[in-house]
User: Fold these one by one.
Assistant:
Number 1:
Amino acid sequence: MGMKKKLTAIDVVEEIKSGDISCEELILEIYERIERSELNCFITLNKENALEEAIEVDKRRSGEECRRKKLLGVPIAIKDSISTRGIQTTCASKILTGYVPPYDATVIEALKKEGAIIIGKTNMDEFCMGSSTETSYYGPTRNPHDLDRVPGGSSGGSAAAISAGETVLALGSDTGGSIRCPASFCGIAGLKPTYGLVSRYGLIAYANSLEQIGPMASNVTDTALLLEVLSAKDERDSTQVKTKNNASTNYCLSWLNGKRSGNGGEGVGVEVEVKGMKIGVPKEFIEGVSPEVEKSVWNAVHKLEDSGAIYEEISMRDLKYALAAYYIIAMSEASSNLARFDGLRYGLRTGKDEDWHTTFSRIRGEGFGEEVKRRIILGTYALSAGYYGTYYLKALKVRTLIKNEFEDALKTHDILAMPTMPFVAFKLGERIKDPLSLYLADVNTVSINLAGVPSISVPCGFSNGLPIGLQLVGKHFEEDEILKAAFVYEQTFL
Amino acid sequence: MLLKKEEIEHIGWLARTELSETEKELFEKQLSSILDYFAVLDELDTEDIEPTYHVIGIKDVVRKDEPKEALSQSEALRNAPKKEKGYIKSPRMF
């Protein structure tokens, strides 16, 4: 039907409600793109259900109930680490191949309530362990900007699908950068919420003290709209912080009103401005990044300055310890969380049963990929008697230092700005053989998870045709500040 | 910090995760360099610092103990690869 390649959720909802576009045709077009695609963004498609739902949407769109839905008819892709009732959920692992969750994650319930249509489950690094989507049992996803390059990870399928127009919105999960890294590499927007804002019920756990589910979209307004839906209160997640920010507040409604009023969607709402906003730029996040990335990020900071913000270079000295602390905590939690995969209640159960321990050891040996095993081994080691104090406890204490450092920097500044990734997307196979070099790529993202603060990555330029990401970091539960700054910055592109 | 092949095999057993010979040899090389990298934390004196478990600091969260609808037996068993008479079938203990 010749739809625009990049559709926004805001437009889709409005055009479906007014009858300007047919939801069924939109969903068909999305699947056509997916079926033609060389990117390998999806592990499982939900075509039959999605088309049925789209036909229902077209029938009921003008009804009172539908008119209230925030995401009516919007195609959304779900990272395969998030449980979807009746749709295979594998975490990109052999050990979960064939697993069909009997329940929905809380975020999925919220999406369905608001009328979103699930397109399918996206490819990722196995159990979210990686920064390139190369550790997937289902093969790597490719970067739409250059097929020889990685899309970033671990939510690489979600980011690539948005970038290539194979979905409008997507969910990712972010333990140490897994939303922001692929957002940066694929040139889209992705937000990691404050730890405790979004329910983790139904997210298959990797490192549960660090991770959050978050929105991914082609623009900042859609990101805000999706965050609003995801942040619903949920008593099934005891680590969720019940604040006024859950669901009831609108992260973007006021801007949308501003944007929509007046002459056909032009202009920005008066509420959105960064005048007087104080931005800290920590030099430790810029040291060592590629020259093109550094230049683009400074350009972005200067554009925010032109819009009235005030920036200042700052220093965060303990930051150099963040990467080691992050990996120790993440691996330790992973070794414990992944103990549940035994092939008994679900998942892979091959070969003849021997005694209990031998059987499980063999199943796990067959079912987990190399990177997952590497992390289980290191995590088990870090938690074992005699080493607990040296590694895990020490890392948790360093985490306190990092958290304090962020809180101090954010006492004197409204937000912080820095590059999301130190470089643009690298080539498939370039780093996968050397795990440490892959871990080092996460240097700018992991500290944010240690501190639990919210952070968004938005595109801020290109280097040889490959996108560069600007990362904005805010205070706990002040997602609105980073969204505002990102939105104002995005407008300077238009 | 050097992790020898035998130690890696032992940790694999503790984690009930079988490793192939190739993996053991590969990990022997890789894990030691990763542990060396972790040693950067030794530079910091953290004696008097409290560990952070939950960044916002909430703990001991309880909810009302009210019965709610649960999965049916058939739904709960649907994904189990081996089952018998409504039970999940496990390998023998000994």
Number 2:
Amino acid sequence: MFPAPFEYHRANSLEEALELLARFEGDAKLLAGGHSLIPTMKLRLNTPAHVIDIRNIPGFAEIRRSGDQLIIGGGTPHAAIEKSAEVQRSASALAHAAAVIGDPQVRNMGTIGGSLAHAEPAADYPAAVLAYDAQIVAVSAEGERTIPAGEFFVDLFTTALEEGEIIKEIRFPVDGDTVRSAYLKFPHPASRFAVVGCAVRLTMDGNTCTDARVAFTGVAATAFRDEGVEQDLIGKTLDDAAIKAAAQQAAENDELEFMEDHFASEAYRKHLAKVYAERAICTALGR
Amino acid sequence: MSSWKPLDKMTILSHYYPRIEGPEKVSGIARYTYDLQLPGMLYGGILTSNVAAGKIVKVDTTRAKQVPGVRVVLTDIHPTGTIRFAGEEIAAVAATTPQALEEALRNISVEIEKNAFVVSTEDAMKPTAPRVFADRENVRKPRVREEGDVEDAFRKADVVVEAEFRTATQVHACLEVHGSVVHWEGDELIIYDSTQAVHGVRKDVASFLDISPRKVRTVCVHMGGGFGSKLRGGRYTAIAAKLAKAANAPVKLMLTRRQDFESVGNRPDSIQKIKIGATKDGRLIAMDAVSYGSGGISGGARVRLPHVYKIPNWRYVHHDVYTNAGPARPFRAPGSPQAAFSMDQLMDMVAEKLNMDPLELRLKNDPNPTRQKEWRLGAQKIGWQNRNRKPGSDAGPVKRGIGMAASVWMTGGRDTKAMLRIYPDGHVEVRCGTQDIGTGTRTYVASVTAEELGIPLKKVIPLIGDSDYPYSGASGGSTTAPSVAPAIKNTADKAREALTELISDKLGVDADEIQWKNNSIRVQNKTLSWEEACAFIEDEPIEVHGKWTEGLSSAGVAGVQFAQVAVDTETGQIQVERVVAVHDCGLILNRLTTESQINGGIIQGISYALLEERWMDPTTGTMVNANFQNYKIVGSRETPEIEVILYDEAERGVIGIGEPPTIPTAGAIANAVYNAIGVRLFTLPMTPDRVLEALSQQRS
């Protein structure tokens, strides 16, 4: 399988990449890790005339801490996020999510910006990004704007990014002393994509949950925050019964556009969402 | 009748030793058909139908021919023009690059007058279903086999159990897809093929092309998996030959992964309705079974019922069902894993109803003396006595269980010939037109020779995988070892006689004064080493021909497997934690490769039990998961601890072991799942959602 002919451009700065994107007016694709783009090009689902390689932009793969924010460059590979001591310390759920993406080859090549922009409904990051209320910083010729995670995922393979925008970085609030977070998934046996992935970020006062973020991927057309579970956790003393009760609220929102395939029916996905909510909460709390 | 030397005299056979081509394979030096590059070679490919039923009206190749690099476009490759499954050949292209080939195939436009189609077995059985063949019903005439008086036996039965089992269609999914590299030398065709039968390919392709088999030579040095799907010559090989002829250049034509999944074989599905009757003391007395299954546009869906247990009164009615899907081909123990899945579960159901230990029930009803011993060995090794006495009684969401199932296979050896040369420097070359499909054939061609001549393995050069070598049949039906090993022994024996005769001539002594000891030859009170003996050979190497003889092989093996599983009752995931396998195969030629065969059979069996299922799209008639991203095969991550116990019966001679180890695995896992959770799974593969569904039905 071979992609349709295209012209390759290597951008050495974000400015250059943006300039190229503007010049080709929608007939260009950005190449970061290439793990989603190249297969779709080989299948001829994507036939861009131009491919702009943004892998070599200096500083585009940086992980840094700025005050109470963890800032991850759009071009950062999954493996760097998975192994970063800073991410493990200040955003455990994100590190967990990065560590279970695909296989080592995928994690060495694929990038967080590429994965988020692709918006594969069974990708791992979206759940983590939602659970952190992360801010996605998009840059274009017109300048920068910040898109809250809750507004970013629009539909299957569709995001709030506009034509000509690049994900420059993603900003995560760091887990403070009172925050417990985790990501767990049930992988598809063959593709390793999430059949169900659940990210949780709990703020605890002793055994009492004062704030909760619970987000799922793989279950519906886009990743989503599950307020049913969150509301049932907040204010509760999180003993086994409370966790189980809250987890039972998972994926009960009828407005969700549930996914279904030969491997996992809608009912099975809903069931797994409850199981994984409980397991992710327990993992976050170290139980 | 000849015989093998006693086991305690053997220095190579029946020991553990690595396969000869191992280093080549693990270092990537081994060249498979897929790797071959011939000078001036073109890339060939086939456009296959993405329509499940219809009539080819028009094939327009105008734009394809204009693609730069395209050398030949053929449109007359479909024999009738009537399409009966998605995956049938419509047109073929040869081009200078794989890119040009793909571009040209993409630019062929095909007009097909579409017909109604049916891809599911159950749908095809309905009276209103579209007919796959206009002149025939989809459900073929039943095949009935019957012994004893079934009705009377059921009247006498104290307990009766009954269930309906379903197994999915499994594709062979060979890592190396089907394909060939071909080139013409004048009017002679040389085929490099990924095949289980170099002589069979010569015959079949000669017939496809209507040329003499004398003009065809097939070569297969290494091949990446067949499992029964590469036993015959392929139409793709004939198409490659036509392309090569037209282009006057060698052509490599390997199927795409989708084509390989859709067109070149599968293990058919089954729907089995079976009733068993037993007496209260645990003797099986009656079986009544009906099955349906579809090999697509072919037959071959029969299940090997009644499996291994002695049932004096039984009836089995099987119906092959046509669907608009690719034809079945033999797949590692055709019909048998399906039978172990149903019958070994029914055994456990009978045992439960009688409140009897399932092991005891098997010992009462298994007529095979070898398996009687194997059951006991396996039970001891897995710790059968420590199993869950009450199914599903483990505390917590993850529950463990143990189950067992049986294996039987009946084939033996047949005609094989070989030729052997001894060179003056002591090297021995053995030629045999068999092939190594990954089982270790090449290695025992050398080791049998070395054992019989008393020389080191490295002195022997085994030459196989070429139809110019003496005849051997297809590597199928677990017949290869019992066919080839006796022929090699016979040939080596003749070589020793010929060398003895030569030495007797040269030294002027009687042949019976020359005595062969291990690694040396005694003559006139002197001891000659192998090299010294061979030095008597002058210019012309000793050349002898031998063949398969009686007495060195037999037919029929038994086998049992025990599986231990952990079932997560919240997610439905089954993890196979451990498999204990006890198998016999007569005289074991090489313990290492025999264990590998058993490991491989079990791994494929776990895959069949838990993962593999061809999904046909009822709206398009094509296979949904014709790729490894959606069709999962067990890999190293899912492979449990496997303990192989080889049960020696050297006195029986050589017997094949390729197929038997894949037979009992799914049945043993299914029984282990029941033992773990107290709920029975009647459908393969046992996927997490099916496990949960079964659990929820039990609760309600």
